Amino acid sequence: xxxxxxxxxxxxxxxxxxxxxxxxxxxxxxxxxxxxxxxxxxxxxxxxxxxxxxxxxxxxxxxxxxxxxxxxxxxxxxxxxxxxxxxxxxxxxxxxxxxxxxxxxxxxxxxxxxxxxxxxxxxxxxxxxxxxxxxxxxxxxxxxxxxxxxxxxxxxxxxxxxxxxxxxxxxxxxxxxxxxxxxxxxxxxxxxxxxxxxxxxxxxxxxxxxxxxxxxxxxxxxxxxxxxxxxxxxxxxxxxxxxxxxxxxxxxxxxxxxxxxxxxxxxxxxxxxxxxxxxxxxxxxxxxxxxxxxxxxxxxxxxxxxxxxxxxxxxxxxxxxxxxxxxxxxxxxxxxxxxxxxxxxxxxxxxxxxxxxxxxxxxxxxxxxxxxxxxxxxxxxxxxxxxxxxxxxxxxxxxxxxxxxxxxxxxxxxxxxxxxxxxxxxxxxxxxxxxxxxxxxxxxxxxxxxxxxxxxxxxxxxxxxxxxxxxxxxxx
Length: 476
Description:
Helix content is 82%, strand content 0%. It contains 17 helices and no strands.
């Protein structure tokens, strides 16, 4: 469970050694997320209704995941910068502050979720899928929301581990959680006949156990950090440290207001960006639901999750890039940060080309895994979605890697603008194509690559403008 200073050693070897466990971890996480759909489609024999119910609720769960990830991103940027500058006292305080912060916000969002779950599903036209499907979707979502505190804590703890250069511990915990979740999902559905409620309770239990274990492991880890800073006390910029030279008092801080402000400053743009993107996905899901075709919803939900497997890999490499960049900027090694970006571009492009080929060749087989009876309509619709999107993976991966760099450099405005441009175009075109031009559901698929292309241009422009160099000079 050792931490890792990424400001020393061969930049590419350090970045790869850090990123590979994260990629494996996110693949398990995606399997964790799609397990419910796989089990619903293969073991709940109700003509695809259970699969449609789980897929209809999925975009709402993604909103909550996005919020949790946003808090994780904000905390990781602050903590990795402090860790890179060898300011271990404030690193410990920042980690504890981030944990307390997420516990408070998790409670708030749980209450919000309980009050808005049914209205959100209604807003997405889920009633058009039938009363039974809608009722199952509401049950699934409500149980999922009860476990938000576990989801939020796990995401933030994993981000803190990664900020400390440790991407292996979150991987081990996620592998355990995923396998355990799949096992109890199967038992609840196959042998206890609990339907979609069994899937939701399985996720609740698995996330709860994983979050508690990961939190305990993190607290043990940060206690092992050096007790003395490796930099002079004069170099510490925190307002509180300017008031006292007592390192021991600083180390024992459980919550720091100034550090909390820094975490929120870094978190809020990411939360707004992530949640807005997810809310945009709710809108797109509503357009899909409005066609009143359960097979279409099942196909879109299944293909969306298959697509998101590779997108999540890109995002993981972007997160690794952000941590690498932030640590090296904290160590005043901008040259290493730039070398890491070049290596990241090469790696992510190679992965994009491989996945494009795989999806073009095996699209139908991948979608078919979600339906026991090989429903031809579901398979054909889902495959068409992948056929349209996968050739553009090389574009979106370039966008995402530049996003990671400028986020690690602290340019949250540039990062948010890039992603929001993609979202606005994607959602706007989907609405125009379906409602304005009556072009049918396939036109929704085409809005994705158009948004990716324009978003990539914006991200590259922000990098070339070098405004990130100004933000990287600011103190945490």
